[in-house]
Amino acid sequence: MTATLHQFERNFEDAPRAAAKTGRKPLISLKGVGLSFGSHEVLQDINVDIGEGEFVCVIGPSGCGKTTLLRILSGLIQASRGTVSYRGKAQTEPASDIAIVFQDYANALLPWRTASQNISLALEAAATPRAERKDRIAHLLEKVGLSKHADKYPSEMSGGMQQRLQIARCLAQNPSVILMDEPFGALDAMTRQKLQDEILAIVSESNVTAFFVTHDLEEAIYLADRVIALEPNPGRIAELIDVPLARPRNQLTTREEPEFLALRRKLFDFVLRYE
Amino acid sequence: MMKALKGFALPVLLLVLWQIWATVAGIHSDTLAAPVDIAVAFVKGFSDGTILSATGMTLTAAAGGLLIGAGLGIVSGFVFGLLPPLSRLSRVTVEVLRPVPAVAILPIALLVFGFGYAMEMAIIAFACFFPVMLLTESAIRQITPRLMEVARVMRLTATQRTFKIVFPAVLPRLFLALRLAAGIALIVSVTVEISANPQGLGYSLMMAGQSLRPADMFAILFWIGLIGWALNWVLVRTELKLFPFHALRRAAE
């Protein structure tokens, strides 16, 4: 874990994220996306471009369609209106290089498979040759700090460990995009902060694009390059907020920066309007 | 080990009290026998092979009936679990047939098959079929939708989905159904033998009772109890061995 963190810091010294951000072309593009169930409109006119390597967080009061938006991006469900394109092509079904980290890790992991076997599932799905799997699995377990728990079943692991395992399984897909649906919502505060830093390290290391749904406003600011604020009934974009905080971020100093506090205030005011 | 021994304390104590009472009161009954006499009958039954051959018959019938009943139950449970409309269509039929006590179809089975294994197995199969079918169907229904989503996101093929997600998810519950059905099979086989079929442990029990040999009767009775206990012990062990995660999960809940 510490190894990845150091690497993460190095990476960022080499290539400041702010520089990488300019001039990228959108990887995912949503134009006029809407979704209705019968007469009930869940999402309305969503327009947003997400660049390669960008970390986008989605916040908003409950019922504003955060998770639905993520599911549309994943291709698990189809928008009723508008277009969703991924790498310039219409996104009609799950793509092999888009991974999802679900909030309910206990349901998303296969209880009958050990940690390494769970990771193996993604490799089996991608038809990775058997000979390569072992090394890849060992590498991924190390990356999320679970090397010592390779042969444990999910039920023998803590919540934080299970979520790490799910993240490792997603990484086994070699994703270009990781969609995360309140992944740390069920974890305690300390574990959550640790995992926030780990996910930042992983994302920057492999230049993955991240789409992160959360109800924790500080978490959104801490992680994101850009925050999408959704408002409810029907769910639509209220505001796109750039987060100009320097990287690498630090759980103590970043959260004390005036900009962080100003954004925090702004987002709280926004959400409170709908409470 | 100590725990297992403790479990034997009560039955042993009861047997000793029973023996003391039988000796003191000096019973010469047509319905009761002293533990020592029962033990003698037990040893005799084993040495002349009568108990073993009867056991073989009963277990053969029970295993055959279980295989047929549980097999059909699993197949139809899968079909109904995967095709809910079909399940709804057959609901009434199932609900009408299910409460029929297995022994109640004895007269029909007797007419169709006559005495012997076929008749007994048919009744056992009937008794095992419904619980296994219903448990299989609910096992399939209880696969969490999240797992199927994981399968979609990873783009597993239909075959991969079946063998890597559906089967392993269902297997532990299927085994549980099998364990339940095995108990039913033993009960029904002995019942059928007592009430009609002239073979196996049930019939021996019946004959011992009718010819006023209580020691033989109790020997067989205890033997049936032992078989049931051993069967369950073996199946529970197998379950732990095959599905360690399942046991862990249940322990955690």
Overview of this protein structure:
The complex is a heterodimer of chains A (275) and B (253). By secondary structure, chain A is an alpha/beta fold. Chain A has two domains: 2-24 and 52-76 and 175-272, P-loop containing nucleotide triphosphate hydrolases (Rossmann fold, 3-Layer(aba) Sandwich); 111-173, no CATH class. Chain A has eleven helices and ten strands. Chain A has helices spanning 2-14, 17-21, 66-74, 105-108, 115-125, 130-143, 159-171, 189-205, 217-223, 253-256, 258-272; strands at 26-37, 40-51, 55-59, 81-86, 89-90, 98-101, 177-181, 209-213, 226-231, 236-242. In chain A, strands 6-7-8-3-9-10 form a six-stranded mixed β-sheet, with helices on both faces. In chain A, a hairpin with a 2-residue loop joins β1 and β2 (40-51). In chain A, α1 (2-14) crosses α8 and α9 (217-223) crosses α11. The longest helix of chain A has 17 residues, at 189-205. Chain A is globular and about 50 Å long. The N and C termini of chain A lie far apart (38 Å). The model of chain A is unreliable at 1-22 (pLDDT under 50). With 253 residues, chain B is mostly helical. Chain B has one domain: Orthogonal Bundle (MetI-like fold), CATH 1.10.3720. Chain B contains eleven helices and no strands. Chain B has helices spanning 2-25, 35-47, 50-82, 84-97, 106-113, 117-141, 145-153, 158-195, 200-210, 214-242, 244-252. The longest helix of chain B is centred in the C-terminal third of the chain and has 38 residues, at 158-195. Chain B is globular, with a radius of gyration of 23 Å. The A-B interface holds A 74, 76, 94, 96, 98-100, 102, 104, 107-108, 110-113, 121-122, 124-126, 153-156, 173 and B 144, 146-147, 149-150, 152-156, 160, 164-165, 168-169, 171-172, 243-246, 248-249, 252.
